[in-house]
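Try this one yourself first.
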């Protein structure tokens, strides 16, 4: 093999003959030609044996051999017999050595990253650690805001569940879908004024909430956050640490693991200790590095500030007003989204009319799970109100609850067609069944709104 060329000579050759070097590399740059070169490393080989081992047609093999011969990498030694040239052997040797080194380097890089991560975890374990003293658990549900808030409030002494949070906040009564394609963002893609109404409703459960945010999606681009973004994430992390250190309270944080709400119940070194939706999909609750967040829209957190005295009758009536408001889509909605009963038509039309290759299975399965769960929360919440306030309004509350219950049963059928997972088939016959179900849910939503409005008219202020 020729001696190694120094860098200056190598540079001169590359600058003087870039086309020739490129042509030489192209001559071998095909999986079939690499196979031929590999077979010829063993020695001379007949055309018929090369055909047998490569699986190439006679014409294809002849074309590949012609290119290799023309570039001086292979030579004919007899009729139908071929062997490698010295240049061919050197090129193969250099390419394989380079490839081998690159694979080894990549393996070493991955091992080094793994070692650093493990050392980081071990170092974090030896650093500061604090966990809120109260038992805190995310309450299992697809609507992660309700699961995270309910779990936090229970730890703070409030006797509530996800139905209470979904009902009093009004969040369960919202149906929101993206236009043109069913994106999984629908349940959380709401403008700030709507979220503020949801937060005010949540506070009627007994705790005021402080909302803190850094505007803008985090990270702004796919991949690793910028140094400036990491500084913002550090600022959020330090705020949450102070809350845990000084007040011994959980924090609801947006963007834990994927774009969902979760509970931060402690920290260890630079890692959040969390309780999130991950238990729903059988994922471990591993610590989350402070800047490893996925928070489209903004990086935000909710801090629980003060206990407030409840006015049960007024709180319940306001909750019903909020439910009508949200269910009727009388609240701000982002561009490119549709809310309320009309959202079900948009969703159904997308299912039927959008080509299969453009359908979003994850969007349909996730939004379907959220809407189904929301119908359950709506039905149960209205039943609870009817039992607490057995006046004339109770009948209308029960009738509205029955509408939502029927909607729940239909959404169970939808979920059977599109069970939750990130990828799946979107066959036209299944999409048509799903669309038919959604169109049956729409009039039930409209009827429920009518009954809730009648219940409000009958409500007596005590």
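Now uncover the answer:
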């Amino acid at each position: 093999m020729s001696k190694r060329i120094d860098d200056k000579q190598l540079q001169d050759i590359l600058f003087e003959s870039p086309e020739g070097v490129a042509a030489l590399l192209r001559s071998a740059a095909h999986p079939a030609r690499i196979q031929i070169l590999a077979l010829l490393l063993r020695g001379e080989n007949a055309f018929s044996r090369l055909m047998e081992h490569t699986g190439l047609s006679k014409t294809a093999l002849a074309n590949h051999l012609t290119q290799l011969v023309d570039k001086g990498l292979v030579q004919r030694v007899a009729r139908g017999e071929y062997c490698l040239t010295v240049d061919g052997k050197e090129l193969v040797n250099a390419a394989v050595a380079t490839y081998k080194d690159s694979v080894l380097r990549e393996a070493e890089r991955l091992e080094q990253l793994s070692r650093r991560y493990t050392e980081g975890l071990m170092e974090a374990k030896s650093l500061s650690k604090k966990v809120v003293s109260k038992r805190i658990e995310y309450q299992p549900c697809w609507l992660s805001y309700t699961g995270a808030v309910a779990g936090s409030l229970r730890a703070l002494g409030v006797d509530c569940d996800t139905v209470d949070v979904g009902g009093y906040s009004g969040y369960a009564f919202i149906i929101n879908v993206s236009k043109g394609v069913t994106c999984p963002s629908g349940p959380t893609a709401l403008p700030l004024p709507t979220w503020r109404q949801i937060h005010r409703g949540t506070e009627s459960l007994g705790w005021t909430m402080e909302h803190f945010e850094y505007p803008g999606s985090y990270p702004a681009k796919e991949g690793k956050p910028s140094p400036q973004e990491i500084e913002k994430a550090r600022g959020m992390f330090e705020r949450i640490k102070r809350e845990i250190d000084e007040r011994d309270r959980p924090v609801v944080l947006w963007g834990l693991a994927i774009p969902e709400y979760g509970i931060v119940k402690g920290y260890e070194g630079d890692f959040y200790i969390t309780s999130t939706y991950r238990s729903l999909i059988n994922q471990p609750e591993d610590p989350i590095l402070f800047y490893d967040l996925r928070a489209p829209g903004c990086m935000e957190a909710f801090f629980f500030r003060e206990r407030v005295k409840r006015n049960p009758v007024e709180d319940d009536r306001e909750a019903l007003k909020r439910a009508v408001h949200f269910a009727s889509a009388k609240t701000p909605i982002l561009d490119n989204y549709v809310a309320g009963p009309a959202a079900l038509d948009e969703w159904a039309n997308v299912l039927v009319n959008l080509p299969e290759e453009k359908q979003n299975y994850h969007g349909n399965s996730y939004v379907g799970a959220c809407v189904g769960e929301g119908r359950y929360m709506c039905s149960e919440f209205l039943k609870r109100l009817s039992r607490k306030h057995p006046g004339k309004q109770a009948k209308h509350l029960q009738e509205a609850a029955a509408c939502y219950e029927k909607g729940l049963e239909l959404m169970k059928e939808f979920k059977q067609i599109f069970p939750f997972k990130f990828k799946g088939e979107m066959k036209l016959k299944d999409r048509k069944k799903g669309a038919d179900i959604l169109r049956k849910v729409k009039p039930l939503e409209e009827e429920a709104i009518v009954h809730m409005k009648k219940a409000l008219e009958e409500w007596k202020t005590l």
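Discussion: The first helix runs from residue 7 to 16. The chain has a mean pLDDT of 87.
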